[in-house]
């Protein structure tokens, strides 16, 4: 037995400490499941075994669930699955889920009491394992959590979780937890009734043994004759109501975009009407059905695999030694600069935060202090740690203090001459090897690099607002930027625990370039006479976090007007005005700046509460469509999604972005692009390039050239290529 350290103690308790071979975290590989089956067999047949304790031998957690890499990587294909079958991978995953249920059930029915001593993080299949144990003791350690987060990658709990959790805590609580993918901290898990005891970390095994020795019931709750589902099952009037309301609510919240949530509902509803053994089969059937959906395939690829790869710096040139950062200088202590100083100090790096005068620099530092106070008051950080972070930040107007910095991040006003000036001041203090990164959102990096004496060390490091929350950072290559500089910039982004994507130097880079057309399409619709409520409703129904008009309010209308006028200036005679842009400019002139001053497309009550559409919108464009039938709504949704996707395709054609994984991850982390799709490029791949081109041609005819497919898409469609097929798995090599 290689994946569990097994020891029979003097009381006859078989203590099994999980330790997956070759993995940093415990996961259920095929071999680990075989070992767990052997434990269940031994417990059943060995008279010397009085009870079983399952715990973890790894210091970083209990179990992260099924081994997805192995599950989708073909390890299960051997089980009689034909490798040439295009669905082989997913069938392998099905086989894994089936086996997981069989093994967990064998443990649950081994005839001896089984207690889980959960001494760390238990997620997905890890939580499902302990649900199949008769007793659960959880550590109160600071990093300990439990939960079933499968929906976040387009799946639902397929290792018995969808059947055991509702039987344990009731259908309503379980459905909420599973459809949100909620994680429970120790106290929450105890309060919810998911575990029996919470004890100090070094006491979990003893507490589990104590239960076996004193009470030690070897029969699961749901295998007892007198068992009743808490809150009533689906056949019970109260239970039936939970399902009716739950179904309506889940469909409304997810707009039917997430088949996993709908299938979860079916599995729970049908499963609760059956004995547990049949219920587990129902679960496996719906689980397999879910796995076969394009949404699950795309979400697993992007939100699990690509997120990990990009999050580890897949765009980093290989062969450049890793950079450690002892000091970073941030120029400009405004909204962005202060946020950048905060996230940098949070990762233990000394920060010199520079502004025009001491008061402006101090203001930036006090913003960091506010963020730290909030973290302390929410129990996320100790006072000492917060003080330590704050002490790392030196606020000053003195450019001399830049000396010794490995990196400068510039975030002064968006002005080319001003940025050139501070570049010169900073470079006078910097070593030849130091990197200069600009956080500009609109000025070309190659243009800014002209002010630098070392343009090969000059790069774009583009954060998103608010910096402390947004995970994405775009790294922008200028014409002369070297690979060594790129590697250093990526090392910095990884150090501050953000996700870097590498983009080339075109107007608006990648994220804003794709996102702006979403808002512009909303303006087109408004000018066509479509009611704003319809525009924003269909916007949300696409899976975007907000509709285009509400999104414009959030970004700030004055900023959008500024961007539009600068785009017009830059494009000169080629600029095609967006219908509605003059009206938005008028709104700004009349003091409607968006959410930030409580007045935009919507009025935001000062006292809080729901926003209401500003009545003036209908004077600007009289409403001609105040209701949309399903076909019309579908077409509007298509417009909002496809205008972004066609822009992303153009970015590939122009080489603005080169790796589909970075485009997908960037779209979800950067502007909340519909997660169900697996990202902006996965959307095109799952529609199919040929179908997508045909649709774009049709839409170009109806709405204009902004939908016109680029030549790249036509070529791909003719050859039947996908983006992942054509551009997949690029590794950037150092020159
Ligand atoms: P801001 O106006 O809040 O801050 C700019 C700061 O630069 C001010 O504190 C100002 O006093 C300081 N400053 C001006 N001249 C200076 C000098 N010579 N030396 C040192 N500091 C000087 O602006 P914000 O929003 O923080 O933007 C900064 C940069 O970040 C701009 O380039 C902007 O385009 C970019 N950006 C902004 C985003 C946003 O959502 N606001 C998102 C991504 C990038």
UniProtKB/TrEMBL annotation:
Keywords: Fatty acid metabolism, Lipid degradation, Lipid metabolism, Lyase, Multifunctional enzyme, NAD, Oxidoreductase. CDD domains: crotonase-like. Residues 509-604 form the 3-hydroxyacyl-CoA dehydrogenase C-terminal domain. It catalyses: a (3S)-3-hydroxyacyl-CoA + NAD(+) = a 3-oxoacyl-CoA + NADH + H(+). Coiled coil: none annotated. Residues 327-505 form the 3-hydroxyacyl-CoA dehydrogenase NAD binding domain. InterPro entries: 3-OHacyl-CoA_DH_NAD-bd, 3HC_DH_C, 6-PGluconate_DH-like_C_sf, ClpP/crotonase-like_dom_sf, Enoyl-CoA_hydra/iso, FA_oxidation_alpha_subunit, NAD(P)-bd_dom_sf. SUPFAM superfamilies: 6-phosphogluconate dehydrogenase C-terminal domain-like, ClpP/crotonase, NAD(P)-binding Rossmann-fold domains. The keyword Cytoplasm does not apply. Pathway: Lipid metabolism; fatty acid beta-oxidation. It comes from the Bacteria. It holds the Pfam family 3HCDH_N. PANTHER family: TRIFUNCTIONAL ENZYME SUBUNIT ALPHA, TRIFUNCTIONAL ENZYME SUBUNIT ALPHA, MITOCHONDRIAL. In the central section; belongs to the 3-hydroxyacyl-CoA dehydrogenase family. This is 3-hydroxyacyl-CoA dehydrogenase NAD-binding domain-containing protein. It comes from Asticcacaulis machinosus.
């Amino acid at each position: 037995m290689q994946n569990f350290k097994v020891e029979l103690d003097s009381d006859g308790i078989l203590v099994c400490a999980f330790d997956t071979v070759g993995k940093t975290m415990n996961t259920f590989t095929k071999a680990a499941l075989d070992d767990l089956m052997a434990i269940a067999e031994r417990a059943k047949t060995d008279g010397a075994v009085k009870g079983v304790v399952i715990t973890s031998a790894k210091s970083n957690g209990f179990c992260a669930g099924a081994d997805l890499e192995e599950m989708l990587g073909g390890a299960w294909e051997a089980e009689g699955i034909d490798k040439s079958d295009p669905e082989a991978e997913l069938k392998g995953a099905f086989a894994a889920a089936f086996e997981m249920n069989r093994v967990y059930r064998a443990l649950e029915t081994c005839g001896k009491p089984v207690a889980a001593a959960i001494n760390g993080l238990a997620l997905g299949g890890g939580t499902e394992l302990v649900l199949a144990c008769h007793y659960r003791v959880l550590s109160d350690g600071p990093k300990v959590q439990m939960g079933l987060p499968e929906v976040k990658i387009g799946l639902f709990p397929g290792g018995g979780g969808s059947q055991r959790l509702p039987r344990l805590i009731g259908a309503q609580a379980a459905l909420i937890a599973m459809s949100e993918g909620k994680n429970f901290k120790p106290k929450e898990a105890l309060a919810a009734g998911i575990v029996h005891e919470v004890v100090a970390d070094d006491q979990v095994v003893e507490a589990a043994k104590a239960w076996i020795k004193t009470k030690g019931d070897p029969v699961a709750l749901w295998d007892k004759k007198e068992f009743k589902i808490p809150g009533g099952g689906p056949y019970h009037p109260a239970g039936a109501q939970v399902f009716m309301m739950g179904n309506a609510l889940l469909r409304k919240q997810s707009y039917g975009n997430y088949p996993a949530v709908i299938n979860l509902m079916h599995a729970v509803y049908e499963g609760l009407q059956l004995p547990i053994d049949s219920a587990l089969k129902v679960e496996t059937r719906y689980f397999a059905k879910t796995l076969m959906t394009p949404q699950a395939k795309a979400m697993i690829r992007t939100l699990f695999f690509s997120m990990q790869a990009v999050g580890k710096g897949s765009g980093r040139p290989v062969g450049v030694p890793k950079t450690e950062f002892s000091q970073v200088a941030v120029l400009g202590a405004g909204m962005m600069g202060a946020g950048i100083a905060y996230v940098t100090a949070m990762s233990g790096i000394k920060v010199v935060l520079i502004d025009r005068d001491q008061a402006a620099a101090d203001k930036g530092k006090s913003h960091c202090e506010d963020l730290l106070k909030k973290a302390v008051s929410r129990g996320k950080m100790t006072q000492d740690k917060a003080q330590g972070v704050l002490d790392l930040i030196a606020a000053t107007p003195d450019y001399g203090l830049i000396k010794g910095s490995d990196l400068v991040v510039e975030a002064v006003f968006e002005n080319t001459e001003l940025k050139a000036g501070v570049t010169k001041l900073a470079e006078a203090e910097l070593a030849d090897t130091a990197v200069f990164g600009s956080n500009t959102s609109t000025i070309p990096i190659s243009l800014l690099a002209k002010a630098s004496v070392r343009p090969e060390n000059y790069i774009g490091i583009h954060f998103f607002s608010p910096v402390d929350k947004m995970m994405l950072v775009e790294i922008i290559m200028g014409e002369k930027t070297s690979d060594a500089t790129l590697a250093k910039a990526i090392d910095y982004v990884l150090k501050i625990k953000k996700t870097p994507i590498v983009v080339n130097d075109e107007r608006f880079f990648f994220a804003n370039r794709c996102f702006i057309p979403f808002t512009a399409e909303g303006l087109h619709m408004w000018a066509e006479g479509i009611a704003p409520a319809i525009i924003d409703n269909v916007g949300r129904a696409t899976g975007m976090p907000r509709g285009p008009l509400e999104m414009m309010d959030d970004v700030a209308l004055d900023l959008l007007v500024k961007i539009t006028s600068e785009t017009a200036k830059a494009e000169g005679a080629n600029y095609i005005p967006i219908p509605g842009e003059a009206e938005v400019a008028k709104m700004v002139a009349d003091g409607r700046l968006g959410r930030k001053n409580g007045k935009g497309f919507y009025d935001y009550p000062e006292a809080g509460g729901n926003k209401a559409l500003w009545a003036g919108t209908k004077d600007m464009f009289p409403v001609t469509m105040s209701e949309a039938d399903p076909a019309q709504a579908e077409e509007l949704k298509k417009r909002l999604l496809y205008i972004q996707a066609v822009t992303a395709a153009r970015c590939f054609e122009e080489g603005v972005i080169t790796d589909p994984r970075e485009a997908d991850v960037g779209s979800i982390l950067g502007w909340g692009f519909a997660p169900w799709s697996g990202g902006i490029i996965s959307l095109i791949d799952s529609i199919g390039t040929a179908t997508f081109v045909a649709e774009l041609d049709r839409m170009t005819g109806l709405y204009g050239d902004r939908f016109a497919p680029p030549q790249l898409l036509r070529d791909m469609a003719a050859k039947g290529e996908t983006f992942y097929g054509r551009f997949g798995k690029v590794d950037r090599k150092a020159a």
